[in-house]
Amino acid sequence: MSGEIHCPLCRGVEIAFYFIDRARSYFCCDNCGLVFVPPAQYVSRRMERAEYELHQNDISDLAYRKFLSRLMSPLIERLSYGAHGLDFGCGPGPALAHMLREIGFEVALYDSFFAPDKGTLDAEYDFICATEVVEHLHRPGQELERLWSLLRPGGWMGVMTKLLIDRSAFARWHYKNDATHVCFFSVNTWRWWVQNHDASLEIIGGDVILLQKLV
Predict the structure, then answer these.
(1) With 141 labelled, which of 13, 108, 134, 160 sits at a CA distance of 20 to 30 A?
(2) Is the overall model pTM greater than 0.85, yes or no?
């Protein structure tokens, strides 16, 4: 397997078979620990968009607001009032951006399907949110590096994605069954990431990751 597939996060070539189900194969990077689906098994961009359009992200849905608050609440505790942020991968209904604006934060939007203004990727931000996004990225290493470059020193990146536990749990994990989920991060993957950046790491629960840019 080495040399045939590169890790989409660290570009490592020491890749091991991890799991297979009726739909796809999964591989694990020995360097960063990312578990990923090979590009040949990605769905088409048309099918990907159709899946996202099924999402019910209604800002008036109290349960959905509570879900987003799992990231928003600890993040805003670390921000100055009125900080300027980016909601990356905001989807067709940018509910998190709306919630942040309600309490005085300025939030720009970017989504390759629903808010494709690349000008927002040329600005600097005090914080960046990526809720239920990184598991969809085909080039997570490239995308995370780009987002990191947009953060001011001391800024925060808040990520929400379910964390992989181990192979046994993965076999039963509903999260892998979404055909648009192609990258699966563990605690060790995020530890690898901060070790290769001037960053601090806080993990809250099983799906909230807070990264601070130290310099």
Answers:
(1) 108
(2) yes
